Every structure is written in structure tokens, then in C-alpha cells.
Amino acid sequence: MDTLPDYYKILELDETDLPSPIDPPAEDTLKAYYQENIDLFSLPESKSITHVLLTPEMMVDQVSVEDSDLLTLYNKNIDEYKKPERRLVERLNYLDLAAAKSAEARLKSGDVDFDGLVQERGLELSDVNLGDLSRNDLGEAGEAVFAISSGDTTAALETDLGAAIYRVNGILNAQEIPFEEVREELKREFALDQARRLIELEQTRLDDLLAAGATLEELASESEVSLETTIYYDGVDTGIAGYSAFRSAANAVTEADFPSMIPISGGGILAMRLNQILPQRPQEFDIVKDDVSSK
Known about the structure:
Elements: H1 27-36, E1 42-43, E2 46-54, H2 56-59, H3 67-76, H4 78-81, E3 82-83, E4 86-94, H5 97-109, H6 114-120, H7 125-128, E5 129-134, H8 142-146, E6 157-159, E7 162-172, E8 175-176, H9 179-211, H10 216-222, E9 226-232, H11 244-252, E10 262-264, E11 268-278, E12 281-282, H12 285-293
């Protein structure tokens, strides 16, 4: 394949490079293009679906949160907020301490480096990487590993996991995130968790109402659920269709089905009713006018 000479350049042009701006197309020009290309602006067969939705975010205002609850949650997850000093560690195992000491001697003499020892064993560095570990995580090797600097290797060690040489690749200081710093985060986490519990209880009541013949509109008047009608077809994944549970139910629902509560991701619930099936049809011109003008 021929290559272009160096003096060829690729220039990116936009409307500002035109000698004069392009006037917006007239309304009748847009309508003519719309009618001539109606297939480009048509919707597939669709379903008109009325649904109710209840999510934890909609219930958080009903949750009472005390500082004692948040402190309990903070202490329950204390390992996330208080982390001891750690080391980024690699460990190269040997069959016995004599083999490990022989490798240690070669390291000291400069005959080989740690990477070379790993390669000699037919291993990759990823095979010996242990990640970040605390002194306690390292067990018997903890004292020796924490005594060396980043980039250094330990002497040959006999540990509860056998003979090995360790290398430190980084030092991570101890971290502590105080309660006040994460208070709002904990408050939201706690409130959402409690809201999910409220929804679990509410789901039973709403299912009982539906079983007794209540409509979705009546559910909306007797609970915190939101009520909405949407046009859905396969391929839509925005709004309520962003929930996979909604898409699965919407694809399967028929006019003969009675609404029932369906769990969705995040701890919410929904129920739906199929109003009618809409045939393939063009979108209204006023809705797609801006799209037409950009063609």
C-alpha cells in the first residue's frame, strides 16, 4: 500500500471555515426532507405501558437517622477507614532454605537481580505479586519485610509457607479517615439500607392491593410510588427502560396480564400494565424537526 508524502496534511474543517454561514433551512424544506425520508424517522412497533415505581431514593426522607446508628455502621466497617501501614510485596518461593540462601548470595554478588530470579523459575512478576499487605498479613515474614526499604529484598527466610525471598516495591503509610469526614456518606448508606427494608414491607402491601383489584392509579394515590406512562420498544434503554427487569417484563407483558410487583436492581420495585400495542409509525414532525435540520 502506497504511503502519502510527508507534505500531505489532513485538515479538519467546520462551519467557521466557510466563507459565509449557512442559513437555517425553511420549514417547508424540512418537511419535504422529512416526507421524502420518512423511513428514517419511523418508530418500530411499540408498547404503551403504564407503570408504578418505588426506589430507595424515593423513601429516604421517611428514614430517621441517629448518630449512634452511623457510629455503629462506621465501626462495623472500620477496616475501610483505618488501615495500618502496608507494603507492596513480591514473594519468590523456593523448595528449601538452602536453595533460597543460594539465590540470596547471587543477589548480593550482583550476579542476578530479583527479576532475573523470577525469570529463571519460568515465572512472571504477576505470579509472585502479593499486592499490599500489613505486617500482620505477612505473618513470620512481617518483621523482615517491614525492616527494608522500597526496592530492596529480604534475606532468605524460612516461614510458615516455606522458604522465600521477598521484595518490597512500595511503602503505604497508615491511613485513618475520621468519622466526621464520612458522616454524610454513612448517613446516605444507612438511609438507603433502611429504605430498602421499608420497600420490602411495602411490596407485600402493594401486592395485596393489586390482588384485591386495585389499579396502578389507585396504588399511586395510596402509596409513595410514582405513576408514569411510557412508550417502549426493544432497544430502548433510557429512563425506566434502564432497568433490565423492566425491559424483560415489558417484552413479555400482554394485555391479559394483571400487574404485580417486580423487584429491580438497587432494592426498588415496579409494576406495569400494557395499555395498547402501537404499530410501526412515523414520529411527529415537530418532535424530530431539529434532527431533520441537522441532516
